[in-house]
Amino acid sequence: MCRLIGAVSRHRAPVADLLGDDLDPFIRLACEHKDGWGLAFRQEDGTIGILRGIDRADDSDRLQHALKHQLTDMAVLHIRMASPNLAVTVNNTHPFGDARAAFAHNGEIRPVAALEKLIDPDLLATAAGTTDSERYYLAVRERMNRGVTPGDAITLTAQAITQSSDLVVSLNAMMLTPTGLYAYAQHDPHSEVIGRRGPAYFGLSYRQEEDLVVVASEGWPQPAGRWAALPDGEVAEFPALHP
C-alpha cells in the first residue's frame, strides 16, 4: 500500500513550493512507506518527466534535490509500501509511464492474470516490472491509445478490473498528463486491509485555492474546512492552469 500526493498550479515553481506545508508531513510517512519513491512532473516543453528511486523518501538526497530544484506547474509524488512478494526494484516503483503520462496506484488487485487479459499482448510485453499497478496503468494506456480520454480510460478500466478480478482492495490512482491531473478513488470497504489500517486509509481528498490544487491520500491532519473528500468511483479532473 502506498501514499500519493499531486498538485496543479497556475505558476511554475519548485515541486516543494507547490506542495508547501503538506510536503514535510507527507514525506515523514516514509518511516512506514519505505520501499521507494517516484516523482512525475510536467516539463517546460509540455512532456512528462519521471524520476524514481528505491531508497526511503525521507532519506533520499536525489529526491530532496528534485523537490527543491525541479520547476514545474504539475506534479505527482508517490511513496511505496511494497505489497507482499513484490520486489523492491526501480521497475516496480511508481509512477509508471513515459513522456505522455505518468500513473501511480495505491492498492492491491488479484490475480495479476486477470489484469493481463485486459491488455493487448504487444502492449503487455512492454511491462518492465511485475506489479499489478503497472498492469493497471497499461490497461488504462491501451484505452488511451484507442483515443479514449484519460478520465474515461481510467473509469472504464476500473469497471473492467472490478468485474474480472477476485480481489480489489483499492483502485485509487493518480495520472499526470500534459493537460492535467486525474485522480480516481475506489476501494472495498470490507477488505481485510481496511480492518488493519482503518476506514480512512484509502480516502483521497483535495484542497483548492485560487492558483493551486493539491490532491492527496490520508495519513496526516487534513482539516475538514480546508480539505474535501473525492467522491468514490468517480474520476476528478484538475486541468492544467499554466498555459
TrEMBL record:
It comes from the Bacteria. The keyword Magnesium does not apply. The keyword Lipoprotein does not apply. This is Glutamine amidotransferase. PROSITE patterns: GATASE_TYPE_2. Residues 2-243 form the Glutamine amidotransferase type-2 domain. InterPro entries: EgtC-like, GATase_2_dom, Ntn_hydrolases_N. Keywords: Glutamine amidotransferase. Pfam families: GATase_4.
